[in-house]
Amino acid sequence: MNLPEIIFGSSDAQASRTIARQVKAGQLKKIANRLYTSNLHDTPEEIVRRNLYYILGHLYPNAILSHRSAQEGGLTKEYSIFLTYKYTKKISLPGVTVHLLQGPGPAEGDMPFMGGLYISSRARALLENMQHSRSRQGLPKVLSQQDIENHLDSLCSTQGEVALNRLRDQARDLCKVLGMAAEFDRLDKLIGAVLGTREARHLISERTQARAQGVPFDSHRVALFSELYGALRRQVLPVFNPIDSTPDYTRHLAFFEAYFSNYIEGTEFEIEEAADIVFHNKILPQRPADSHDIIETYQIVSNTQEMTRIPASPDELMTLLRSRHAQLMSARPAKQPGQFKNKINRAGDTVFVAPELVTGTLIKGFEIYQAIEDPLARALFMMFLVSEVHPFTDGNGRIARVMMNAELVNKGRSRIIVPTVYREDYLLALRALSRQGHTDPYIRMLTRAQAFTSCIDFNDYEIALGVLRQCNAFREPHEGLLKMPENVFSSGNDAGF
Question: 171 near 126, Cβ under 8 Å?
């Protein structure tokens, strides 16, 4: 017989006898009061959870997923669900606890849900979560104040203050219908505090406190920074020192650093053209802005005094970023040199930190950065911090690499250059960290790039150029792989591989 997976008990005598016969024949099994299944293989818990909304809609028609269940989108991680219905009762089904809460039926804005149920509108759900929970044991019907504050902060970050004000207006109208005037009063004060128009001393979330103080931050990015910090803390990173520190060594290394850093961002020159631009100030008439990009990058990274400056406070971090960006983008006034972005920027599917969250996210990132001791770890963290926040309209990658190498120069460690052939390794590792939180590829990638850089003697320009060519440094990623110089393990550096 082709029976449905879920069969409900019936008040009809004939239907009830049919079910009893099928149970006796082993075609059905009872899994709860007035609830049967034809699935004789899976556990009752699996069956109920798979068919939960169909079951609930049949047992409690027109019930509303409400309170924390509406806010969390259904079944909680504790396998509980809260429904507003005609009466209050706690029901245990296999694998699920159903909490029925007496309250008003569907109201304007509540949305039809699976199985003939409804789900509270966002405004109603917030009002419901403003109620006081009397539960002393088990899962409370409402989310914590911190959870609600964080939700309001996320809404404000993604949709703007206008969304919070609109939500408050909807809740104001609903509270009269639902009899939730006291709940609206609490919600009104909370939204006002988040927006900075009401007293904020009762806010408990770090995110909303920061927003109320005018420095909101991107909590997802801060969590990502914490993940990278933990990975860097767990690792023992190798030490790579530069071969020399003579003026010629620094000048030539800075040139290749500037060349490759611009090439990665699409400012492409033949190496001979770049050398004429940097060393002989031969601006290409057909590409004046591109020429200035590589010159200004070189001016920053070849200045040893500038490259020993690292931030000791959040304010110094902002100052360094702005001043270096102002110089780097001086030939491109449309890119707002030295000013943080005022529009959201993206790379492919990655949307970077919103403009209003840039300062706060950099501040939170600095708080993590200042706890890092190892110079290479600080450099890797700083690079990702700037790259992930993307504080400027353009030039973020170059500024991120400048900030990274300044950390290394400050402690006398070898710089990191990312050759053209290594660009895909670099971008893929960055993307894996940004999107999936995979820290190891990022750390390995930049550590290998530092090992590569540390093994090249930049005192003689032509010799360094020859080594870079032999290592495929100037090839496109699809044309070859980066080769380590032959003396990588005999240079006196501890490669750590």
Answer: yes
